[in-house]
Amino acid sequence: MSRTAAAIDRATAAGRAAFIGYLPAGYPDKEQSIAAAVALAEHGADVIEIGIPYSDPVMDGPVIQQATTEVLARGFRIAEVFEIVQAVVEATDAAVLVMTYYNIIDRMGPDEFARRLAAAGGAGAITPDLIPDEAAEWIAAAEAHDLDRVFLSAPTSSPERVAMIAEASRGFVYGVSLMGVTGTRDAVSDAAVQVVEASKAAGAARVCVGLGVSSRSHVEEISRYADGVIVGTVLVAALRDGGPEAVGRTAAQLTGR
Amino acid sequence: MTAQSYREAPGPYFGDFGGRWIPESLVEALDELAETFAKAKADPDFVAEYQRLSRDYTGRPSLLTEATRFAAEAGSARIFLKREDLNHTGSHKINNALGQALIAQRLGKTRLIAETGAGQHGVATATAAALLGMECVVYMGAEDTRRQALNVARMNLLGAEVVPVEHGSQTLSDAINEALRDWVASVDTTHYVLGTVAGPHPFPEMVRWFHQVIGDEAREQILDAVGRLPEAVVACVGGGSNAIGLFHGFLDDPGVGLYGYEAGGEGLESGRHAAAITLRRSGMLHGARSFLMQDDDGQTIESHSISAGLDYPSVGPEHAHLAQAGRVTYEPVTDAEAMRAFEALCRTEGIIPAIESAHALAGAVRLSAQWGEAASDRVIVVSLSGRGDKDVGTAAKWFDLLPPDEDSQAPSTGVQA
C-alpha cells in the first residue's frame, strides 16, 4: 500500500488538499535538515520530499541550486540521505519521499537504492529527469520494495503521454504547473488546472501540483482543483535565512494553520 | 550479425547508450524536433539549401592536405589533414550550427540558444543566427568568459547575448545545464542548438548527420590522393562531434582502423583529465546515457584539459557504443603530448592547429610509432577540426613566449610594419 497515497487521502478526508514540502538533504547540515523537516511536519506537511543534492540539477532554479551546491561542497555522501530519511520518519507521521536525479539511483543500482530507501522507512521517490519511457528498471525495483514512484506530467505532455505517466506513477502524479524550473513565481500558471484535469481524465487517482508555488494564495488556488500542493523554494529560502524554526513558520503561513 | 552497419545507427539508442534522460517538459519539443529533422533530411529542398550554404558560406568542401614535413620529422606514416580549420569561423562547429539553425526555421522558432566552452560553438551559433536573422543567447561558464574574453566580444559583435553562468564549476557542463533550464521555460519560441553529439535523442543522431560531410569528403579525397583507403582515421574526442563526422565516412570499411583521442590532461593517475571513455563508467548526464566521469555516488567529477573544447566529463553516446563494440579505439593524450604535436605542426607545416586537434595529431604520431617499420607504407587521415588562433595565448604561456610579468610593458598588439 502506498504510504504517500494514504497521507494524501487523510488530508482529503479532512476536507483539504495535502501539503507537500521539499527540503534538500543535509542543508545547511545534517542535524538542521532533520530539524527543518520535523518542523515542516509539525506545521502541516502531510508529505515531505527530501531532495538529494546533485552536481547537475537541471530542473532547479538558483535558490535550490545554491543550497545543494553548498551541501556537496562540504563533502556530502549519499549514505547521509538514508540516515536523514530514517530520522524524519521516526520523528513524524508524514510520508517521506526522496527527490532525486536519476544518475544517483543508476550509480548505486536501482534495486540497491530501493532496498536502502525502504529500509530507512522512505515511502518512495520523485525522479524529475526520469520519464516513464526509460523507467523500466526503476519501476521494477520500486515494485520489489513496495515504494512509490512519482513521475512528472507537464503542460505540453500529449494525452498518450499523460496516460503513460498516470499508469507508471504510484503515490501521485506530479503536475508541473508551468514550463520552467523550480523557483518562486508571482502567480500560478493557468496551465496547472489543465495538467490536473488531463491527468485525472487519464486515470490518475491523485495529482499534486508544484513548481513556482510560493504563497498562501497560490496554495488556496491550487487546493481548489488538486489533491495536493507542492512547495520547495520558499521553504529552502526560509531555512537559509532563519533556520528550522523559520521553515515551521513559513509552512504555517502557507497552510493557514 | 555478420555485415553489421555502424553507419546507419539511428538512435534513440546506440547499443546500451543514448536515450532521453530529461524532464518531461522537454519531451514534446524533442519529439517535434525529431520529426522535423526526419522530414528535413528527406526533403531535397532542405538538403539543397544546406549544401548551398555549406559551399557558398562555410567554404566546403574543406581541403585534404598532406603534412609531409610533419610526418617526416615524426618518422611516421603518411599523414593527411582534413582541414576543418579552413571553414568559416575556424572549425567544424559551423556545419552543425548552420544545419540546426535551418531546422529551427522549419520549426518556426525565432530564438537560438547554445552552450559554449571555449567559444567555438558559441561563435558558430551566433554566426548562423546573424546570417538567418535570428535572436541568439549563448550560455558560457563565468570562468570561461574570463579566459575567453575575446570570443565573448566576437559573439557580441555578431549580435548575440552572452550569459555568464555563475553556478557550479562555471564551465561547459554548467553552461549546458543553464541552457537546458532556459529551454524548459522557452521551448515555444526557442531552439537549443546543442553543440556536440551528446544530449537526448534526436541530438546525437542529428548533430552527427550535419557533420557526416566531413567523413564523406575525406573518404573521396583520400581515394583520389592515394588510390586506396587509409590504414587509420584519427580524431580528437571531447563530446565527439568532429570525430563522429569523420569516422562516419569509414565506419563500414572494416579495414580502416578508427582512433579517438580523449583529453588525458595531466595524466590519468593525476585525476585531472577528461578521459570519460577510458574510465568506462556508465551514467546519464545532459540527457543521454553514456560514459561519464563520476564518483561512487553518481556525482559528476569535474574534467580538466588544456583544451577547453575537450574539457567535458562525458562523451556522445554513439562513441560509448563504438568503444564497447570495439569498432573504435579510444586512448587518452596528455596536455604535454598534445602541445608537442601543436608546436611541431606550426613549425613544420605553417598551420596553427586548435589544441583540440593537436590531440589527434599526437595520436597519429603515437600510432605510427606503434607500427614501427611498417609505418612508412601506411596512410593516416587526421581531423584538423579547428584552427589555433584562439589558443595562441595558451600556447604562448605553455612555451613561455611571453615577457615576465613583473617587468612587462603592455605587449604590443598593433600591426607591425
UniProtKB/TrEMBL annotation, chain A:
Gene Ontology CC annotations of this record: cytosol
Pathway annotation: Amino-acid biosynthesis; L-tryptophan biosynthesis; L-tryptophan from chorismate: step 5/5
Record field: catalytic activity: (1S,2R)-1-C-(indol-3-yl)glycerol 3-phosphate + L-serine = D-glyceraldehyde 3-phosphate + L-tryptophan + H2O
InterPro entries hit by this protein: Aldolase_TIM, RibuloseP-bd_barrel, Trp_synthase_alpha_AS, Trp_synthase_suA
Organism: Garicola koreensis
Name assigned to this protein: Tryptophan synthase alpha chain
Subunit and partners: Tetramer of two alpha and two beta chains.
Keyword rRNA processing among record annotations: no
PANTHER family: TRYPTOPHAN SYNTHASE ALPHA CHAIN, CHLOROPLASTIC, TRYPTOPHAN SYNTHASE, ALPHA CHAIN
TrEMBL record, chain B:
Pathway as given in its UniProt record: Amino-acid biosynthesis; L-tryptophan biosynthesis; L-tryptophan from chorismate: step 5/5
Keywords: Amino-acid biosynthesis, Aromatic amino acid biosynthesis, Lyase, Pyridoxal phosphate, Tryptophan biosynthesis
Record domain Tryptophan synthase beta chain-like PALP: where: 60-385
GO terms for MF: tryptophan synthase activity
Any single Gene Ontology cellular-component annotation: cytoplasm
PROSITE patterns assigned: TRP_SYNTHASE_BETA
InterPro entries in the record: Trp_synth_b_CS, Trp_synth_beta, Trp_synth_beta/beta-like, TrpB-like_PALP, TrpB-like_PALP_sf
Residues modified to N6-(pyridoxal phosphate)lysine: 93
Catalytic activity: (1S,2R)-1-C-(indol-3-yl)glycerol 3-phosphate + L-serine = D-glyceraldehyde 3-phosphate + L-tryptophan + H2O
Cofactor requirement: pyridoxal 5'-phosphate
Entry EC number(s): 4.2.1.20
A Pfam family the protein falls into: PALP
SUPFAM superfamilies listed in its UniProt record: Tryptophan synthase beta subunit-like PLP-dependent enzymes (SSF53686)
Known function: The beta subunit is responsible for the synthesis of L-tryptophan from indole and L-serine.
Family note: Belongs to the TrpB family.
PANTHER family linked: TRYPTOPHAN SYNTHASE, TRYPTOPHAN SYNTHASE-RELATED
NCBIfam families: trpB
Quaternary data: Tetramer of two alpha and two beta chains.
Name of the molecule in the record: Tryptophan synthase beta chain
Provenance organism: Garicola koreensis
